[in-house]
């Protein structure tokens, strides 16, 4: 099946696109769990104003440097495929 991304010979490593999807899924899941916990704490009066301000002022990085490297590899692969077609 040409649309299915393959694993390496030992079947242990995913290709960069699949790794990126898994990493982004894990990040999204962690952010949702954090938000749910924070909502619970706010509803139950367990968070002070100072803590809320600290949370709001401390942004969570959206992607890691490994994610960026994976994206760069994907872009390079796509560019090579495009140039081979033309």
Automatic annotation (TrEMBL):
Please indicate which superkingdom the organism of origin belongs to: Bacteria
Give the protein name, as stated in the record: Uncharacterized protein
Protein species of origin: Rhizobium indigoferae
